[in-house]
Amino acid sequence: MVRIIGTLIVIALLAAGCSKGGSSSGASGKRLFTSLADFSGMKIASETGSIFPLFIDRVIPNVEHVSYVSLADIVLALLDDRVDAISLDMHVALYLAARDSCLAVFPFVVAEDSYGFAVPKGSALGVVGNEALAHLRESGIIGELEKQWFSADESVKALPDLRHRPDFDGSAGTIRYGSHNTLIPMAYATLEGAPVGFDLDIVHRIAYELNMNVAVSDILLFGELLPALAAGEIDMAGGSMSITEERLEEVDFIGPYFEGGTTLVVKRNRVGVQRK
């Protein structure tokens, strides 16, 4: 229930839009941003416990980092002008900008990243899963799903009802998929508590191509996903999981299914003419 309420708060804040903010109290002036260097000396908000400040400090000096406990809190801080920017994964940033025309994704990425679904090292699921994902990408389906899930139209956001394979019977088994369902629009919950999102849509399509069903386990903490995979409690793990060298030593990945990275969201009226 807490996760559902959090999603509703974010949507409500975006519905309020620019009218929510207006006070410049606490913000570091009204500088226009034309390059990443322009964020030096600015206040940038991140969710507590994220590694975004580390990435930012590698490319932007003298940033004043402000931590908030939830996505709703950092969005409100930006709308209220208590900070100059917020740091997010690219896919979440695109969703926010689609929901509210007064927000903009700054065009230069702080740190590049790619996302995949973790499977046990040497798992056959990784091989056939990547083949199925390649088919989804080459056929243009992944691109269409990005438009669907990153848009402001909530009415189109539902898991697919797949019927194009007349031979499908699920006899190849069930993928036990573990997900941290807190990150809209990638993996989150409906009002009824059902897991949905861009990630889950892709997982269902991969499983369908493999003649398999999907059983979703909502893992409470992101840090519990890979231990659950190692313990054999799930067959696949995801939820905006970055493909890193460290993780590749322990698991294989189906993916990447999305490439983005750490980015900054600002109020649109503070974006100047971009320069590198």
Going by helix content, strand content and strand pairing, the class is alpha/beta
Mean pLDDT: 86
User: Assembly state here?
Assistant: single chain
Q: Give the H and E element order.
A: HEHEHEHEEHHEEEHEHEHE
**What percent of residues are in strands?**
15-25%
Low-confidence stretches: 21-28
CATH class of the largest domain: Alpha Beta
- Which architecture of the largest domain does the CATH hierarchy give at level 2? 3-Layer(aba) Sandwich
Q: Give me the Rg, rounded.
A: 19 Å
Termini separation comes to 44 Å
Shape by Cα distribution: globular
Number of domains: 2
The CATH homologous superfamily of the largest domain is named Periplasmic binding protein-like II
By CATH, the topology of the largest domain is D-Maltodextrin-Binding Protein, domain 2
- Name the helicity range: 25-40%
Describe the structure.
The protein is α/β, with parallel strands linked by helices and 276 residues long. The chain has 2 domains: 2-112 and 263-270, D-Maltodextrin-Binding Protein, domain 2 (3-Layer(aba) Sandwich); 113-260, 3-Layer(aba) Sandwich (D-Maltodextrin-Binding Protein, domain 2), CATH 3.40.190.10. 32% of the residues lie in helices and 23% in strands. The chain is built from 9 helices and 11 strands. It has helices at 2-16, 52-59, 71-79, 90-99, 124-138, 141-149, 198-209, 225-230, 245-248, and strands at residues 43-47, 64-68, 85-89, 103-105, 111-120, 174-179, 188-189, 195-196, 213-218, 236-238, 251-267. The strands form 3 sheets. Strands 1, 2, 3, 4, 5 and 11 form a 6-stranded mixed sheet that branches. Strands 9-6-10 form a 3-stranded parallel sheet. It has a two-stranded antiparallel ribbon with strand order 7-8. α1 packs parallel to α3.
